[in-house]
Each structure stands twice: as structure tokens, then as C-alpha cells.
Design a protein that fits this description.
It is a single chain. With about 150 residues, the protein is mainly α. It has two domains: about 80 residues, RNA polymerase sigma factor, region 2, helix turn helix motif (Rna Polymerase Sigma Factor, Chain: A), CATH 1.10.1740.10; about 70 residues, Orthogonal Bundle (Arc Repressor Mutant, subunit A), CATH 1.10.10.10. Helix content is about 70%, strand content about 0%. It is built from seven helices and no strands. Helix 1 crosses helix 3, helix 1 packs across helix 5 and helix 2 packs across helix 3.
């Protein structure tokens, strides 16, 4: 893969990378760091990509690993006051959904975000997270139930 093709594919994936990292890290600075680390790691390990058509899935997996690394390294808790960098949502219902989504455990939230917000299939999510398809389905089911309870 050429540098130009790599750049093109990264730019096409930019919004997905941002949303996935933001859903996990909830902090603009951490999000930017994770995306940058993921892109650099992907570039350095470009020779490990077997099929170019799976580039986005491969890159998202690298990003999730970078986000998980940052989450493990955190030594403090995040308060809601740190969310000031996130875009303002205009509808109360959207705010409720966003807050409910943020309350989900990370493993469930990442599956919900990848499936509903990024339109990845169960099979693609399975590859990205390196978990069985059945686990993806059960996390989706559990996430829907938890969101429903939270939204009541």
C-alpha cells in the first residue's frame, strides 16, 4: 500500500475513529492522542495488513487497543465537568441517550457504538474486538436492555 493510499483511507475513516475513541475516552485530548497513536501504529505495522479491504476494521481494532491502553493508564476519575469539549446536543432526548450510553460498561458501550453509530456488522465487530460473534450479539442485547432501563 502506498503512502497516498494509506492517507486516503485514514482520512475516510477519520470520523469513525473520532467517534469510537470519544465513546470510550470521553475526553477530547485523550481522544486525539489515541487516534494519533493508532494511526502511527497502523502506519508502522502496515505490512501486517493482509487485505486492503479490511483496512478500516483493522485500524479501528488498533484504535480500540490504544484507547484501552489509555484507560488502563488513567489514575484519576473523570467528572462530567470535563465533557465541555464535546459537541452540544440540541435535544433533551439526545442528551438522555448520550448520558445513558456513557453509563454502560466499556465492553458493552464499544459494541453498541460500533454497531449502531458506525454501522459495523456483528461479524466485523467480532473481528475488530477479537471476540466471538455470539459475544457481540449478547453484548448488543445486554446493552439494549441496559439502555432501555436507563431511559425509563
Amino acid at each position: 500500500m502506498t503512502k497516498e493510499k494509506f492517507t486516503e483511507l485514514v482520512l475516510e475513516s477519520e470520523s469513525t475513529l473520532y467517534r469510537v475513541s470519544m465513546s470510550m475516552l470521553k475526553n477530547e485530548t485523550d481522544c486525539e492522542d489515541a487516534v494519533q497513536s493508532a494511526i502511527l501504529a497502523a502506519y508502522e505495522k502496515l505490512d501486517t495488513l493482509k487485505k486492503e479491504e479490511f483496512f478500516k476494521t483493522w485500524l479501528v481494532r488498533i484504535l480500540i487497543n490504544a484507547c484501552n491502553k489509555q484507560l488502563r493508564a488513567r489514575t484519576r476519575t473523570i467528572s462530567l465537568s470535563e465533557y465541555t469539549d464535546t459537541p452540544v446536543i440540541s435535544h433533551d432526548r439526545d442528551i438522555d441517550v448520550k448520558l445513558a450510553l456513557e453509563q454502560l460498561p466499556v465492553k458493552i458501550r464499544e459494541v453498541i457504538v460500533l454497531f449502531y453509530m458506525e454501522d459495523f456488522s456483528v461479524k466485523e465487530i467480532s473481528c475488530i474486538l477479537k471476540i466471538p460473534s455470539g459475544t457481540v450479539k449478547s453484548r448488543l442485547s445486554k446493552g439494549r436492555k441496559l439502555l432501555e432501563i436507563s431511559m425509563e
